[in-house]
């Protein structure tokens, strides 16, 4: 089944993306064993179905190499023209410290080589420590590398609104910020979304399915112990649910989502993705893919088959008002990563 036209978004003047991106943290090794050959074969299924956009990072194990191998196989089996149908968004997550031009250039060259490209479609920059202002130097060099053709577009991940503001004030152009955004974690709505609306910056979201917790698989289930949660993603977002309001309230949310899902003939995961996809400034929701292990792409295609009605929002809101204020507890986007 091919995705409908509305699954695509004109992300930049030169690039259209699928609004459900395939997230590759799940091949890093922290989510079970991945067989490289099966994983790359599985990538064809996603792209053939219309899920053409990949989210990866320099530190997601073999993710960048998988893109390189997938591209080689795509050319070998379908010709070079087939490459124009895919987009691969990587990240650079350096340790804080000096950010000279040779350091920046060297690291970008590694991603270019691994992915087998002359130009990165999108480079999303992460920074661990705001007290080290070298992030501005890194971004200045990255902007130059973009202007020289090493990247098509520059973006960020996990920056908070205050630092996104500083970056834009420095005249550094970024097209998007990748942040955690879900029915459980609505922190972006406090400051990030309004700022992005004013400054024409897109959001790409992760954690939108809470690693799979936002699905029928956990509806009516007793609270899982950490030993049962077999991926890094599930463990991470279970902690987020604990902070948000706990398992009992989460069950109430799952029940509400199921009632909405039943109305549209879809499932809980579809409603959870659709909810975030309909928020302002959200260009796309990244859904993690355990390539060659579990494949939900046919199911996730249904996200584009319905829209949420005002009464659905009211029912969801009636549960969300009972949750804790994560912005107050954790801070703005990405503050959980700051030392
Ligand atoms: N910038 C950052 O700091 C950052 C941080 C985290 C993630 N990310 C990005 O975001 C991506 C998403 O990762 P995430 O950890 O946030 O996970 P997620 O997308 O919230 O959850 C992914 C998991 O959800 C389950 N799933 C997917 N579709 C489903 C469906 N229709 N029904 C039921 N379950 C479904 C699958 O579980 P099973 O495989 O078990 O079936 C899948 O592995 C990552 O790969 C990465 O690209 C970025």
Question: Strand order, biggest sheet?
Answer: 3-4-5-6-7-8-9-10
pLDDT averaged over residues:
97
Largest sheet: 8 strands, parallel, barrel
- The helical percent reads 40-55%
The H/E string reads EEEHEHEHEHEHEHEHHHEHHH
Count of runs of 4 or more consecutive helical residues = 12
Radius of gyration: 19 Å
Bound molecules: NADP nicotinamide-adenine-dinucleotide phosphate
State the shape: globular
Q: Give the termini separation.
A: 45 Å
Regions with pLDDT < 50 over 5+ consecutive residues?
none
Strand content: 15-25%
Number of strands: 10
Structural class: alpha/beta
Map the helices and strands.
Layout: E1 8-12, E2 15-18, E3 20-23, H1 36-49, E4 53-55, H2 63-78, E5 87-92, H3 101-115, E6 120-125, H4 134-147, E7 151-157, H5 161-169, E8 176-180, H6 192-199, E9 202-206, H7 232-244, H8 247-264, H9 268-277, E10 282-288, H10 297-300, H11 310-320, H12 326-330
Helix pairs in contact: 1-2, 2-3, 8-9, 8-11
Bound molecules: NADP nicotinamide-adenine-dinucleotide phosphate (NAP).
Name some characteristics of this structure.
339 residues, alpha/beta, two-stranded antiparallel ribbon, 12 helices, 10 strands, 15% strand, globular, binds NADP nicotinamide-adenine-dinucleotide phosphate
What does this structure look like?
It is built from 12 helices and 10 strands. With 339 residues, it is α/β, with parallel strands linked by helices. Strand 3, helix 1 and strand 4 form a beta-alpha-beta unit. Helix 8 runs antiparallel to helix 11. The longest helix has 18 residues. NADP nicotinamide-adenine-dinucleotide phosphate binds next to strand 10 and helix 10.
């Amino acid at each position: 089944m091919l995705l409908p036209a509305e699954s695509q978004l004109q992300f930049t003047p030169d690039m259209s993306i699928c609004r459900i991106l395939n997230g590759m943290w799940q091949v890093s090794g922290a989510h079970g064993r991945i067989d490289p050959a099966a994983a790359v074969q599985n990538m064809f299924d996603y792209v053939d179905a219309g899920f053409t956009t990949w989210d990866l990072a320099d530190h997601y194990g073999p993710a960048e190499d998988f893109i390189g191998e997938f591209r080689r196989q795509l050319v070998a089996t379908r010709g070079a023209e087939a490459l124009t149908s895919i987009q691969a968004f990587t990240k650079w997550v350096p340790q804080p410290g000096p950010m000279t031009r040779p350091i920046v250039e060297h690291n970008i060259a590694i991603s270019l080589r691994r992915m087998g490209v002359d130009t990165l479609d999108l480079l999303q920059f992460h920074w661990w420590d705001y007290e080290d202002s070298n992030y501005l130097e890194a971004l200045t060099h990255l902007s130059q590398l973009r202007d020289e053709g090493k990247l098509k577009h520059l973006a960020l991940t996990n920056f908070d609104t205050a630092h996104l503001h500083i970056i834009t004030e420095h005249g550094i152009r970024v097209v998007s910020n990748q942040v955690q955004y879900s029915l459980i974690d609505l922190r972006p709505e406090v400051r990030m979304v309004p700022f992005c609306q004013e400054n024409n910056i897109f959001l790409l979201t992760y954690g939108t399915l809470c690693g799979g917790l936002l699905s029928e698989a956990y509806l009516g289930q007793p609270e899982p112990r950490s030993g049962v949660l077999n991926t890094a993603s599930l463990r991470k977002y279970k902690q987020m649910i604990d902070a948000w309001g706990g398992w009992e309230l989460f069950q109430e949310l799952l029940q509400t989502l199921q009632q909405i899902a039943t109305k549209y003939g879809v499932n809980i995961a579809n409603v959870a993705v659709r909810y975030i996809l309909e928020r302002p400034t959200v260009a796309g929701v990244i859904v993690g893919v355990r390539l060659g292990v579990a494949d939900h792409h046919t199911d996730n295609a249904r996200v584009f088959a319905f829209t949420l009605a005002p009464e659905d929002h009211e029912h969801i809101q009636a549960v969300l008002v009972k949750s804790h204020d994560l912005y107050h507890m954790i801070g703005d986007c990405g503050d959980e990563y700051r030392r």
